[in-house]
Write a structure and sequence with these properties.
CATH architecture of chain A: Orthogonal Bundle
Oligomer: heterodimer
Order of helices and strands of chain A: HHEEHHHHHHHH
Number of strands of chain B: 4
Number of domains of chain A: 1
CATH class of chain A: Mainly Alpha
Strand order of the largest sheet of chain A: 1-2
Helix content of chain B: 55-70%
Number of helices of chain B: 12
Radius of gyration of chain A: 20 Å
Order of helices and strands of chain B: HHEEHHHHHEEHHHHH
Distance between the termini of chain A: 43 Å
Structural class of chain B: mainly alpha
Mean pLDDT of chain A: 74
Number of helices of chain A: 10
Strand content of chain B: 5-15%
Shape of chain B: flat
Shape of chain A: globular
Amino acid sequence: MHIPDGFLDAKTWVSTGLVSITTIGYAAKKAQKELGEKQIPLMGVMAAFIFAAQMLNFPVAGGTSGHFVGAALAAIFLGPWAASLLMTTILIIQSLLFADGGVTALGANILNMAILAPFSAYWIYTSLKNLLPSRISLSIATFVASWFSVLISAIACTLELATSGIAPVSLVLPAMASWHTLIGLGEGLITLTVAQLILKVRPDLFKIAPKPDYKILVAGLLISLFLAGILSPFASTLPDGLERVAINLGFLKLGEGRHLVKSPIPDYAFPKLENEQMATALAGVIGTLVTIILIYGLTLAIKKKKA
Amino acid sequence: MVKKRTKKGIEKGGHTHLHKHEKEIHLHKHEHNGIVHVHPHFHPEETHTHPHKHDVTVPPTLAHQHEHLEAHSHIHTYAFERYAHLISPIHALDPRVKLITFIFLVILIVLTPHLYWFRFLAYFCLIFTLIFFSRLPLTFIIKRSLAILPFILIIGLFIPLSKGKISGSYNLGFLSINPKGLVIFLNILIKSWLSILVIILLSASTKFSLLLKGLEHLKIPAVFISLLSFIYRFASVIKDEILRMKRAKDSRNFGDSRSYQLKMIGQMIGSFFIRSYERSERIYQAMIARGFDETIKTIDPLSLKWSDLAFSTIFLASIIAIQLWRC
């Protein structure tokens, strides 16, 4: 899922880069203010641990394998901000030193795996955990949160590639989403086992994470809106993605792309296809939003009942 | 089994790891410049993605003198810095200069409009000139650049499916390849390959400590610098532990149902989570004992040399020349 350089077009990598820099910059500022000096070695060793644990492959289906990501695990135990910083650092090291994921695509990769994954996981975990005051709800929360964190990274990755005009979203999104639904199950089961083990052996570790913060919920909502509002309309320009790229680059390079584009008029030949693709792109995002709103509403309702 | 081990580890507290290391360490003697060195040598891991320095024959260079000073540190050498100790004009550059110019080059490559084949060719020549001067083995760089292949293949699968309005396509039996799809594919292939070459050149020709210092001087927040150095220091230690446990697991005929495998992996990761947490507590105590006060101090500050200025000028001039070169 680490997108290399050259796969994303300028508008996609610049916009995702800006979103990631702002979010991670805020997280770093927050971390420097709030984290005690003890947290630095804790986060550092945890980052090293997740980096190392990502090597463990597990069988998925048909002879292929997925590997553990760990964004949800980090978010559940260290809180979303710390998890975000930790995953960002892992991505920086992977891109700069291991050439795994591009430098210009770093913003997109951070958005997918270090912002969307831990925050959505944390959000789902904290919402579901309180539904029932038992170990079962803790297990369900851990499982769903980590499963979803993988799925949302894959969906975001696909939307970014589709936005760049590489592959038609109507084909890639269902394929990627269904495939990562499977891989996510592996991640979910692993994180669930980890949580159960820690609950047995060191239950006190569940208390390292800071208390839920309403800012996080707002951030989650904003990111979801970003996906729905900014990425999806771009995805609709897919049928002529290449021309779009040329136009964008031409604009950036002060008209250099002029000779290349035969017609700057967008290709409206397939209105049906275009709608279909937009519908598919939106379906995932809207589905995500609806799920999140439902979970949140349910939690609120139950909390009110209790009170 | 894993659970038991974890509980045992906790009972024993922090000492478990130390004993375990001692057991597996072999003393490895070798003669170097007339002096016999004895240094700990871990079991070579078959499944290791990033081989240790001991497995690799380091090319003889002038850097050897300098290198043997650092060869005994506890930090394992990763594959990316196997050749970081060579002496070359590229290795000698200030890490800030290298970071800025190389990342700028990647951005330029990514921003190049498609069909500008000559400009890609010019970048190709520039990159290979840099590689030539860096004295890095070409096979090493090419092998590492294959990391983009999986992505390229996935994208390649979708070329026949991308349907545009351009008439005429290359028909290969049941597949009809759209020239537009082909252009998209070639464009991505060239850009991603050239970019990964630049990044490999950057990481392979710079020592990690210098790269970190460069990033620090470029105002990357201090949190990241300390996290990066922690990953660098401890990832290989933790990875060795994980691989040892994985080997133990594999040798005990691990191959049951999928859910059982996932459960075992989960318990392994869980026990490593706890171990890492406890390790971080010990590290914190060790840091406090050595007077840690939330800042990480380093010696030898960076300073720009005339050669850095010369390199930047030549680099910029060639970049501008490439931009102006009409094709």
